[in-house]
Amino acid sequence: MTETVFKYFPNLSESQRKQFEILAKSFPEWNSKINLVSRKDMEHFQERHVLHSLGIFKTMKFAAGSRILDVGTGGGLPGIPLAIMMPDVDFVLCDSTRKKIHVVQELANEMGLKNIEAVHARAADIPGKFDFVVSRAVSRLSKFIPWIEHKIDKRSINPWPNGILYLKGGDLQEELNEVNRSTEVISISQYFQEEFFETKAVVYVTL
Q1: In 3D, which of 169, 177, 186, 79 has the Cα closest to residue 133?
Q2: Are the C-beta atoms of 192 and 161 separated by less than 8 Å?
Q3: Across 115-128, average pLDDT
Q4: 64 with 157: CB under 8 angstroms?
Q5: At what angle do helices 14-31 and 98-111 cross, to 10 degrees?
Q6: Do the strands 163-169 and 200-206 form a parallel or antiparallel pair, or are they unpaired?
Q7: What confidence tier does 38 reach under pLDDT thresholds 50, 70, 90?
Q8: What is the distance between the alpha carbons of residues 139 and 173, in angstroms, rounded to a whole number?
Q9: Alpha-carbon span 164 to 174, nearest angstrom
Q10: Model confidence, pTM
Q11: Which of 45, 104, 190, 206 has most Cβ atoms within 10 angstroms of its Cβ?
């Protein structure tokens, strides 16, 4: 089941491989009890959820010591796959649904992920500042940006200036026209060959 991920990331450590295997086994079990992602999607979980999340990793490997906020994480996407790939980066995964955050914490515990903090809260209520905010299209960017723009740290330790890395799909031009910010659309299809990624992108917004 994890072959889809291992194909693109052949140099994972043994512990990282084990963590992805635990995710592949445990996430569907939790999803059968609590609706984290569409159940009809579960047969494509590795491709449409885990690999999709890792489009952010392909776009930018965060510097060690970075603080990343995953807003509307649901069952831990994209935060958990990113935390597996970058054990020296700190991730705060937040969601307004308590039972989903409970699942995130249980998954993190099972995988031994020490760089994840799971928080039941809205993004605006999370204390502290972050280098980047990541998310999987929880709303239109014009609505999303005001929720989190005050959460971005002024320090800059990454290859790009701090901001948002937002997983989106489809025709984005109209939505980006609503945003009075510098944006860049990075196609995920340059990283992953599957047809699913032809219309998928990481939108980088500088804040």
Answers
A1: 79
A2: no
A3: 95
A4: no
A5: 150
A6: antiparallel
A7: confident
A8: 15
A9: 18
A10: 0.97
A11: 104
- For 3-206, CATH number out of 3.40.50.150, 3.40.190.10, 3.30.870.10, 2.60.40.10 equals 3.40.50.150
**How many residues are present in the chain?**
207
Residue 66: count of CB within 10 angstroms of its CB: 21
DSSP of 35-59, one letter per residue? -SS-GGGGGGHIIIIIIHHTHHHHH
The answer to whether 205 touches 166, Cβ cutoff 8 Å, is: yes
Domain ranges of the chain: 3-206
CA distance 134 to 153: 14
Q: What is the mean pLDDT of residues 1-20?
A: 95
